[in-house]
Design a protein that fits this description.
mainly alpha, 4 helices, 2 strands
Length: about 80
Amino acid sequence: MALPLPKWIMQRYSILWNTFQDKEFDHDAASNVLNNEKTVSIAISKLKKNNWLEIKLDETDGRKRVYKLKSPEQAITEMGEKNE
């Protein structure tokens, strides 16, 4: 169930969503999109913790992670379900 995001994480989510939408991406791709910010790992961690991001292992390299964002609609719907 998705939880509300702090404003600074929501801004990074928006940038990532506008770039990747429902496509998978890795840390390097996120870092490039976010202009190599030092906070990329923290943003990814917060997105995962608040259930706005799904993480799985890369099939070709088990050390790497592959990310996929939840759609804004799905996340907001999940937040509404929490309050029911």
